[in-house]
Amino acid sequence: MTQVKTQSRETAIRMQDLAEALEAKTMTLKDVKAIAAEEFPELGIHKGRCTREIAYNVLKNNAEGIFKKLEQGEPAKESTSKPEHKGQQVAYVRVSTVLQNTDRQFNGLNGKMSFDRTFTDKASGKDADRPALQEMREYVRSGDTVNVWSIDRLARNLDDLRELVNSWLAAGISVRFHKEQLCFDAQAEGQAKAMQVMMLSMMGAFAEFELAIRAERQKEGVAIAKAAGKYKGRQKSVDRQAVLDLLEAGKGATDIAKELGIGRKTVYRIKAEVEAV
Question: Distance between alpha carbon 48 and the CA centroid of its chain, in Å?
Answer without folding.
Answer: 28
